[in-house]
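seq/struct pair 1
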Amino acid sequence: MINKYNQLLAFLFIIICVSCNKKEDKKLISKEIISPEIVTSFDIPLTDSIYDVKQEYKDNVPVFPWTNGNIEKYDHFVLDKNGIPLFEYEGKLDYFPGSYIQVASTYYASYKETKSEDSKNKFMNIANFCYNNLTEIKDFSVLNTKTLVNGYDLKSPWPSALVNGFAISVMLQAYDITKDKKYLIASQKMVRAYNTTIEEGGVLSYWDKVPYYEEYADPKSHVLNGFMFSLAGLYYSYKVTGNLEAKALFYQGMGSLASKLREFDAGFTSNYNKLKVNTKEEVMETYASALNEDPDHYLELEIYQLLSLYNWTGQYFLRDYAHRFLKYDTGIVDGMYDKPKYESITASHTIDPVNYGIEHLNNELWSWGNYWSTDKVGTEIVVEFGKERQNIEAVVFYAAGEDFMPDNFDVYVFQKEWVKVASSLQIRKTLSNSILADNGDKTNVKVYYLNKKQTGTALKVVFNNLGKNKAIALREFNILFDRWEELEIIRAALDKYTIN
């Protein structure tokens, strides 16, 4: 179960600019293929020299990837007497570096976009607060968090690879404004935290001997989006200053991602981290799609991150996993592709159309909330795609309980006419799982893989029985098919975050 600290950060994590233009001449920092079977090891080139900002970025240090200047969303934030944002956790207001560091990034983006002195001053206020609260250990620095977060094995204060990733850029941006080299030195020392284990005060752990940069200082947690945020910080340092330590650590992390990304593929969504949740009934995994009123939030964030990393490196495994995760997405991809996945979805019968109507099958609230239900044998669900879809490979049911899961149905695809392509009783491959949403609601998920991939403009499911409870109750209904066209639109929009 994803804890309330993540609810606090969820609002901040997707700060993607939607008005992005495609760049035709994309420059990649490497086209070397990283094998998913091999983690590349690097000798980290340590130096006592200070990496200055490259000449092309003098007085023009770029914004941090995935950041825009939308400062209006911070109007309601609580500030301390010095103007530093405070955040509520477990009923108490406190300083959370993972949050206020992102606020700083947004103010810097606003300053670059508008030249607003107010945005510049607010950025520098938070940047100086970050600098003054850095913890220096030997030859590296971290921005620690004091508050312990439920669900993780932490000791206060604890460092975060995500926080350091953002802070690396904030220090370089502060240097851009002030020309004070103390910020350059601080940024460089924060890079070295990625080459230092958690036990020594850094952010590095080893997952089956594979180096992993941890968002939480819990060596077994392995948060995926936090790891990719940390890669963005290393990428930023290398591209803006030429820091060879950052470059080596970035590619070390890319090797780790190539080795471990498959571990986050749950078959219908992604794993948020690799921790387990113990309930009275079973041990459950934590998923990227079981949070707040937008269950696909973190899944979409991971898609953005994977595609950005693909833009930066040209590594095809990143694009392929982004496509896989996009197929799992159940609705509108907020900010980058604001169009519904389906043109329409209808049902021939509904028990209570007003309170439990068919619209619940396509509203993305599949890990909690309301559901659609029927108590009539022969009920049909029809999904219109709006255009021909290729490689239709599976249907996914998200039931409001195991006893409400359909187990006897037929699948039809429209190819000039309706063609029966599968019977659930003959399907050879399935995947079953369950999700515990943050509010405690449990959802059972079952994926039925068609024996042969199909092509069509619509799909229909006909239920041949009603199961143990004499009814079928579904929170969501998903169909897995190719989405390469949408993926390319999103990828092109994200290319503005490539630093040449």
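seq/struct pair 2
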Amino acid sequence: MGKDGTRVHPPSRSTVMASRHHSTTLAQMPLFAACTDRERRQIAALFDETAVPAGTVLVTEGELGDQAFILIDGTADVSTSGEYVATLGAGDLVGEMALLDRSQPRSATVTARTDVTAFVVDPRSFEQLLTRYPRVSRQIAAALARRLRAAS
């Protein structure tokens, strides 16, 4: 029984299978490579998976953002002021700057070049990711530093 007297049910088989699948997917990404299996399972529980058709805009330059994405499959193009900047692929984090500084608009537009599968990262999950998993925080900081250097 739960604290409020309601019956607590174990996670469904499909929920457990999805979490294991997500954990396996995370293990293949440099962002999560330093995490233990247990940490990856916990992190996987923070995210929902979504399918994004080719041509769909994931994030729009100039808008405030309330979610980020971790690409699982497919590619997405980054542009600023309508000019192509880069192509992102599996393992890349998209839109995290909007979650780090919620008062500033997005700095780029990211459009799915191909069909994309991605984890959706909401502000609460992102905060948990940063505070509970310092190894991931360091990887995110390093990725941001690389982007800053490349832009200079």
